[in-house]
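To: structure desk
From: M.T.
Subject: fold request, one chain
Message: Could you run this one when you get a chance? Sequence is below, nothing fancy, just the single chain.
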Amino acid sequence: MKKIVMTAAIALMAGGLQAQDLKQKDVPAVVKDALVKKYPEATKVSWEKEKGNYEANWGGKSGEDNSALFKPDGTFVEIVKAISISALPKNVAAYIKEHYKGAKIREAGKITDAAGKTMYEAEIKGGDLIFDENGIFIKKD
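Reply: Done. Structure tokens follow.
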């Protein structure tokens, strides 16, 4: 998951929108409160500011098995949970094999947005590929 976040940070820097690490004190109280209310199990949280939103990362060896995104007013946007590559829908690997010759999936994540919609993220060299709940390609981040 850390690689996914790093890839996203690099992509943002290339686009002029740099993700920045934040200290706890620099995160609005309403955002921290929203995280605690939604994910009371979140401990040892690190924060980043990305595209004007606040990203909380916690869990796992890298400390980034969970990445929850909140708007500045504390509104929940989405969570990305690290999953095993084998847990991706079957057609994700087939899509990557066909459209990204020789690419290997480095990491995978299950995205759940505020409305409960599920998507999947597959990290390959050069970016993150987003798929719907059925493994149909949506976009490259």
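Reply (cont.): Helices lie at 2-14, 29-38, 90-99. Let me know if you need anything else for the meeting.
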